[in-house]
Specification:
This protein is 43% helix and 15% strand. The protein has 207 residues and is of the alpha/beta class. α2 links the parallel β1 and β2. It starts with a helix and ends with a strand.
Length: 207
């Protein structure tokens, strides 16, 4: 039993060192990019299915970005919704000229990809951005989100940028899940810093 406890402690220490070293490397490697101003054109792709409760807040939130409005578009994909998601998007499109709507009525319109991946694929095919940023309809972003991610791509060796997502906790389960997400994101960032990518979440991913 004592050997199992010692082994568990050793694994915990090694994982912690992996996270600390990897995150320090990643921070040191990329901090210079924050002063770059290359201003690529950005396409923000947002898939939405039956998101009438969230979609307006999501779109308005992205539109509050401090990135120049003529330098980004939002492509919202109404993915077979049976609620008022489409009509809400159509009303928003009147207000925001850089909002583009794709209306998918059935999965056959997505070719060989079904569900959310198919919706994302159609959005990407319809985009004109040099950089594609992806988020979900139930997410909110910081006003600096687009500009911060865009600056990462000023390094020509970078082709994919995974980023943090924080859960808005309302109960004890949400708090525990939020803690887990922070831990998993930090571990993933450490993996990138140690040249051993582990994975990422698709609701804050850019290519």
């Amino acid at each position: 039993m004592i050997w199992f406890i010692l082994f568990t402690i050793l694994v915990f220490i090694l994982r912690t060192l992996f996270m600390i070293i990897g995150n320090r490397k990643e921070h040191s490697k990329n901090k210079f990019l924050y002063n770059q101003k290359s201003l690529h054109f950005i396409s923000v792709v947002v898939p939405a299915r039956n998101e009438e409760i969230n979609i307006e807040n999501c779109i308005r939130n992205i539109m509050k970005s401090n990135y120049p409005k003529d330098k980004f578009e939002i492509i919202a994909i109404n993915d077979r919704s049976t609620d008022n998601t489409l009509s809400i998007l159509q009303n928003l499109a009147v207000e925001f000229p850089n909002l583009k709507i794709l209306n998918i009525k059935n999965d056959s319109e997505k070719n060989n990809l079904k569900g959310k991946p198919g919706a994302l694929h159609q959005g990407i095919l319809s985009s004109k951005g040099e950089i594609i940023m992806m988020t979900d309809a139930d997410c909110q972003v910081n006003p600096n989100w687009i500009s911060t991610i865009e600056q990462r791509f000023s390094n020509p060796e970078i082709g994919l940028v995974p980023s943090y997502t924080i859960i808005n906790d309302k109960n004890i389960f949400d708090k525990l899940q939020a803690l887990e997400w922070v831990y998993m994101h930090t571990m993933a960032r450490a993996g990138v810093g140690n040249n051993n990518p582990l994975g990422c979440y698709g609701n804050n991913l850019s290519i």
